[in-house]
Design goal:
This protein is of the alpha/beta class. It is built from nine helices and eight strands. It comes from Kocuria oceani.
């Protein structure tokens, strides 16, 4: 992405809001606005600055964040101590893209923000989507994780990912030669990496006029 995604943190605790804004600013590709602590301030800031994403607490002094969620025409991820099932179901029903329970670490929020960036990237600048494209975007937003952290990768998959060059997309055949595997094997791993948002696919036309997929690492 050429420009950072702008994020507004809404939290009634000023110190927590500043902490979470610091987490956001530490993730490449994201910039946090000064945090706000009330629903009224959140509405004013959203209207004035039009952030890409709001990180919203449930407990605010002048309203419930769950009620504010219905009024915000912007992507929202909940960051809250409200851990009851009703709050989670209500947040999802009213449009929250994710739900993080406090306290959490900077790396945990960073994973969620990177997933959000992949989701945005997969839905950007497209005239139309196939069902596969929609599924890929939603999978990127909520990737399956066997453990708290990045998805474990096999040695071959890690080698395929390491062979990708920023700014110089390669074909599956070129990647296969670099890694020392068959083109079919490279294609299989590239498809999996593209599905979880780790790889970007570009369509390039060769000298024969036939389209060819080329692969590069996803932006952070």
């Amino acid at each position: 992405m050429s420009e950072d995604l702008v994020v507004l943190v809404v939290d009634d605790d000023f110190h927590v809001g500043r902490l979470h804004a610091g987490y956001v600013n530490a993730v490449p590709g994201f910039t946090a606005l000064p945090p706000v602590g009330t629903a009224e301030q959140a509405m004013r800031t959203v209207h004035a600055h039009q952030p890409d994403l709001v990180l919203l607490d449930v407990y605010l002094p002048d309203a419930l964040g769950l009620d504010l969620l219905r009024a915000l025409d912007v992507d929202v991820i909940m960051l809250t101590a409200a851990a009851d099932p009703v709050s989670v179901r209500t947040a999802v029903r009213r449009g929250a893209l994710a739900y993080l329970i406090k306290p959490f670490t900077g790396p945990r929020l960073a994973r969620t923000l990177r997933a959000y960036a992949r989701y945005r990237r997969l839905l950007a600048d497209r005239d139309g989507l196939t069902q596969e494209g929609v599924d890929r975007a939603l999978h990127a937003l909520h990737p399956a994780e066997a453990t708290p952290g990045e998805r474990p990768r096999s040695a071959t998959e890690a080698s395929v990912l390491a062979a990708l060059e920023p700014g110089a997309p390669l074909s599956a055949a070129e990647i296969a030669r670099k890694v020392g595997i068959s083109r079919a094997t490279a294609q299989r791993y590239l498809s999996a990496l593209a599905e979880d948002g780790s790889v970007e696919i570009q369509l390039r036309y060769g000298s024969t006029g036939r389209p060819e997929h080329r692969y590069g690492p996803a932006a952070p």
